[in-house]
């Protein structure tokens, strides 16, 4: 009963957020984002330190501070986007979403080998599921269930409302390989820090970042294409940015191949972040895990 009350409250919260006009949502996000930037010292410092690490030689301290502030504003704006997203009709999606580079994804998909979609916490990643109906694709998203069950159930409904299937990360390998064998898409977020035993150190903005090696291992095992896909936004709406397929490196040296393929994936993510520098999740400690030795 307690969880049911929370679910109703969450539904109402996002329902009200989604009913607010885009213009007013921008104003509220600007107001709340600036407040959050001032009071959340921990994440403000993380964001500024990360931005300094990535752009210290390219941007002034004032520019880095402004970017960090915009990150907080955009994170608030995502709430309104999600509330709106659960209200929009599938037949209206084409009015709000533009797709750049659709041919890269459809070409890989039509080979019927399955496609691994490399993505990141950029723009509003929660809306990536729209590509399934817009491009007529059978899609799966690898996800970690949230700790708070009522909120998790809300997001499961949001992510699957247009036919996308969710694969929980725990014991997921067989489900991923089966989906690929059936010629389906499997999307994986690959921009978060992991412990040393879960990843490999690959260059990211000029520094080694411990990166999940799962995508490289699956691509090498399945032999399927890897296509980077990100959901950004501008003043005219949402943009699905689809980049060219990343060539699979297979030399026979498994360890080096995992490292090189992962390096390519990080490069693709860095490229899109440089295009939309205030739309990435800079409040995450991306370089938290340290290498045992310099690489």
What is shown here, in short?
The protein is of the alpha/beta class. The protein has helices at residues 2-19, 22-39, 41-55, 61-85, 93-96, 102-109, 131-135, 149-160, 173-181, 214-222, 254-275, and strands spanning 97-100, 115-119, 139-143, 165-168, 185-189, 199-204, 207-212, 226-234, 237-242. The protein starts with a helix and ends in a 20-residue tail after the last helix.
In spatial order, strands of the major sheet run: 1-9-8-2-5-3-4
Q: What is the molecular shape?
A: globular
Question: How many structurally independent domains?
Answer: 1
Mean pLDDT: 96
Distance between the termini: 53 Å
Radius of gyration: 19 Å
Sequence stretches where pLDDT stays below 50 over 5 or more residues:
none
By DSSP (H or I, 4+ residues per run), the number of helices equals: 11
**SSE class:** alpha/beta
Give the biggest sheet: 7 strands, mixed
N-to-C order of helices and strands: HHHHHEHEHEHEHEEEHEEH
Helical content stands at 40-55%
Number of strands: 9
- Strand fraction equals 15-25%
């Amino acid at each position: 009963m307690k969880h049911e009350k929370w679910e109703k409250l969450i539904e109402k919260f996002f329902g009200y957020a989604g009913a607010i006009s885009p213009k007013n949502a921008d104003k509220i996000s600007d107001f709340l984002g600036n407040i959050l930037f001032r009071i959340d010292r921990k994440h403000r410092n993380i964001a500024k330190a990360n931005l300094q690490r990535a752009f210290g030689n390219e941007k002034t301290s004032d520019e880095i501070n402004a970017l960090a502030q915009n990150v907080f504003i955009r994170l608030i704006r995502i709430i309104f986007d999600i509330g709106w997203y659960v209200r929009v009709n599938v037949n209206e999606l084409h009015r709000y979403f533009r797709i750049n580079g659709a041919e890269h994804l459809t070409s890989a998909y039509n080979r019927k080998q399955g496609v691994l979609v490399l993505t990141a916490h950029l723009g509003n990643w929660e809306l990536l599921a729209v590509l399934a109906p817009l491009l007529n694709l059978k899609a799966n998203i690898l996800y970690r269930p949230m700790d708070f069950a009522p909120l998790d159930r809300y997001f499961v409904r949001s992510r699957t409302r247009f036919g996308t299937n969710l694969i929980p990360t725990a014991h997921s390998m067989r489900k991923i390989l089966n989906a690929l064998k059936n010629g389906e898409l499997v999307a994986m977020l690959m921009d978060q820090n992991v412990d040393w035993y879960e990843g490999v150190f690959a260059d990211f903005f000029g520094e080694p970042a411990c990166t999940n090696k799962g995508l490289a291992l699956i691509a090498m095992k399945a032999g399927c294409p890897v296509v980077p896909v990100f959901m950004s936004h501008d003043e005219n709406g949402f943009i699905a940015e689809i980049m060219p397929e990343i060539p699979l490196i297979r030399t026979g040296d498994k360890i080096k191949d995992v490292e090189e393929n992962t390096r390519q994936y990080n490069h693709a993510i860095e490229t899109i972040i440089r295009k939309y520098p205030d739309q990435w999740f800079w409040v995450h400690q991306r370089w938290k895990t340290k290498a045992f030795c310099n690489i």
